[in-house]
Amino acid sequence: MTSSSVTASAVDRNHIVVKGEKFRAHRCVLAAKSTVFNAELLGCMREKWTETITVDDIEAPVFKSMLYFIYSDTLPDFEQSSNNDGENKDLIFMAQHLLVAADRYDLERLKLMCEDLLYKNLDVCTVASTFVLAEQYSCKQLKAQCVRFTSSHEVLKMVAETDAFHIIMKNSPSMLKDI
């Protein structure tokens, strides 16, 4: 291996620090998958000239899952912890946060995959927070599924008793006009 190939390889890899945790990734792979990374790493933005990039708007486990998707085009197997109601809290948490990250980094396929996961795991406890995400991040199909899920008076009554629904009522009551 020549010294020029070692140098080229080293330049192509970036250290990404997310909430104190370090990740290594190839700038060309990140740039190929995300227009945002493309602009940050290959465009005229500051990150182009540094080997270390700091990301402050994502939690480290979410970023790790996003990197897994970028390299494999699949979702990792999320740990799923079930409580007495059978909720998959870790799955929902990760899918919600990954949806936000996918929107932020313009990863449309990841966003669609997260929408699908959230749709398949809608329940009384998650539908209100999922509805808010769908509204905020322009997920029209997911929003429609949330509305459909709450179309029954009995289900809507149970949803209305959740903390997430009360938060929406307090902070954004106009958002509920569709429900």
TrEMBL record:
Known pathway: Protein modification; protein ubiquitination
InterPro entries named in the record: BACK_BPM_SPOP, BPM1-6, BTB/POZ_dom, SKP1/BTB/POZ_sf
PROSITE patterns in the cross-refs: BTB (PS50097)
GO BP annotation list: protein ubiquitination
The BTB domain, residue ranges: 16-79
Matching Pfam families: BACK_BPM_SPOP, BTB
Gene3D superfamilies, sorted: 1.25.40.420, Potassium Channel Kv1.1, Chain A
Similarity comment: Belongs to the Tdpoz family.
Protein name: BTB/POZ and MATH domain-containing protein 2
Species name: Rhynchospora pubera
